[in-house]
Amino acid sequence: MDTDGTAKLSKNVLRMKFMQRSLDPDAKKQLEEDEKRVISDEHWFLDLPELMANEHVLLMEKSVVSCENLVFGRISLKGFNPEIEKLMTVRSQNVNDEEEMSKMDTDITDEEMATR
């Protein structure tokens, strides 16, 4: 409390909309200066090109297929979606062919290795 018996209001109370009407011009000017100082202190940034050069590149995947090594993203059973079933058969044939080719590439089969 002040010595003359009147209470001094805090800045937060004076910033309230209904209190703005009753402020004298000096108090308004002081509040505006305080707000500008706070805003200018909050809006600073560092422009550091060496940090920008070290930024990591992030890759965003919309699907979990590549992460989980899934064979098919969509599955159709019992003729529900014939197009998907055709893609599934073609894909499974390709995978089977690749597996057979990798087995043919080996000079010694697993059975021969087991007998030796």
UniProtKB/TrEMBL annotation:
Renumbered to this chain, the Acidic residues biased-composition regions fall at 107-116
| UniProt-listed InterPro entries | MPP6
List where this protein forms a coiled coil: none
Map out region (Disordered) in residue numbers: 95-116
Q: What is one Gene Ontology biological process annotated in the Swiss-Prot or TrEMBL record? A: maturation of 5.8S rRNA
Return the Pfam families for the record: MPP6
Highest taxon, organism lineage: Eukaryota
Q: What is this protein called?
A: M-phase phosphoprotein 6
